[in-house]
Amino acid sequence: MNVVGQSEQPRMGPLTRILPFGQLLRIGAILGSLLSFFATGPLVCAQILKGSQAVLTSAGSFSPDLKPWIPVGQARFEADEVQSRHGHRAARITLGPDVTPNYQRLRQDFTLDIRPNDEFRASVWARSRDIKNARGPYLALEFLNECGQRLAIAHSGAVTGTDREGWEQLTAEATAPGGTFAARVSLVLHAHGTARFADPELIRTHRPIAWPDLGDQLRLVTIRGDQVIQPRFGGVGFHASPLKV
Hints:
The chain is mainly beta. It has a domain at 54-206: Galactose-binding domain-like (Jelly Rolls, Sandwich), CATH 2.60.120. It is 7% helix and 37% strand. It has one helix and eleven strands. The strands form two sheets. Strands 1, 3, 4, 6, 9 and 11 form a six-stranded antiparallel β-sheet that branches. The protein has a five-stranded antiparallel β-sheet with strand order 2-5-10-7-8, with no helix packed on it. The longest helix has 18 residues, at 21-38.
């Protein structure tokens, strides 16, 4: 029979070593920290586990009636076959001199499998004409709750210059905040003149994988003496305020 304190040590196995009372207290503190860590609800491990990407709408032609994009505001909204991009039909927004600029836009909402903490990139190609002394067309990426209220918004830059006859790509990136139910992409013209948009695209670039929430379910933690990584670990923050036993 082995006696604690003698030179001969008992054989080691998982949780079989007899430890002094002080070390038992230290291990109890460590286990308490671990159990607290795993019981804190859904933990997002975005930096460890990379989620999948998904294309919600891919670059391509607008339909002749622009659907499913919805026109918003007083303006002329039309499909444009002449100023296409690589053969893809464009959308055209025109504000005449008698119309007050008020963020006239084409918008589309996406609700299928949209979750908080998803990361998105929206993009579109744009060009402008007859826009003088005003900001050019731009893109907006919004996140909405179930009531349709805006939770967050991200903007691209505007088309450079007041007349851009060549195509320029606009991009906005953002992370869906808590409570997100839908993502909305808007193609905006807030100036007199004409804007054309082509090949809009919305991509979910990353989805963090949530740690499973086990609630108050019992956890089993096994400590193996032959797999110790930090033998002097004293709990979360132990290096700042060591546990004294």
